[in-house]
Design a protein that fits this description.
Number of strands: 8
Largest sheet: 8 strands, mixed
Order of helices and strands: HEEHHHHEEEHEEEH
Strand order of the largest sheet: 2-1-3-4-5-6-8-7
Structural class: alpha/beta
Shape: globular
Strand content: 25-35%
Length: 190
């Protein structure tokens, strides 16, 4: 992408890649209310690759850098971890042919961002992804406890820490992402 480019400049190419199943286009939503699609802003989106191995190849990241945690990889591990989480959620579509409504949230004029809002069969799951054990989730906490307090949401943080259930949020280990969303009813059409 060139600096300052608009979505319209790359719309056909991005749609072709999405239709070919090589990327996921994750749109922004303005309100965490079901159905999330009604509140989507299709002109603002994030792009994720179908496979994080492809992402590593495209960026020239060596597997040894990722596994050992070398400094050169430290700047990009958040992007790789987010890409991993979205592929785990979207993989549930393959099992039940149900579109997983995955979006993200940003507040205009603020640095507040929630990595993913996932619509299940019974609730919206605001999800924050952390690549390490440093798990401060200020945006998620503000989103749930202040911005949308009346929505009675419970957040999810995916990190390298073990499972913990707090009043306003659950933390799950990274490796259990798909199992968590399957358990939440996102992997079935019930």
């Amino acid at each position: 992408m060139k600096k300052g480019a608009r979505a319209a400049d790359f719309e056909k190419a991005l749609q072709w890649l999405a239709d070919a199943g090589l990327i996921y286009l994750i749109a922004r939503v303005s309100i965490p209310k079901e159905p999330l699609k009604f509140y989507a802003d299709e002109s603002a989106f994030k792009v994720y690759l179908l496979d994080h191995g492809l992402l590593a190849c495209m960026t020239g990241a060596r597997s040894s850098e990722m596994l050992i945690g070398m400094d050169v990889f430290s700047e990009f591990k958040g992007a790789f971890t987010e890409n991993y989480v979205v592929t785990q959620i979207k993989s549930l579509e393959l099992h039940d042919e149900m579109d997983k409504n995955v979006f993200y949230y940003t507040k205009d004029g603020s640095t507040m961002e929630v990595d993913f809002l996932v619509q299940g069969n019974s609730r919206v799951v605001p999800t924050e992804v952390k690549a390490e054990e440093n798990v401060k989730a200020k945006s998620l906490r503000n989103f749930i406890n202040e911005e949308f307090e009346n929505y009675h949401l419970k957040g999810l943080r995916v990190s390298m820490k073990p499972y913990i259930d707090q009043d306003w949020m659950e933390n799950i280990p990274l490796y259990s992402t798909e199992a968590y969303f399957r358990q939440e009813g996102l992997g079935t059409d019930e």
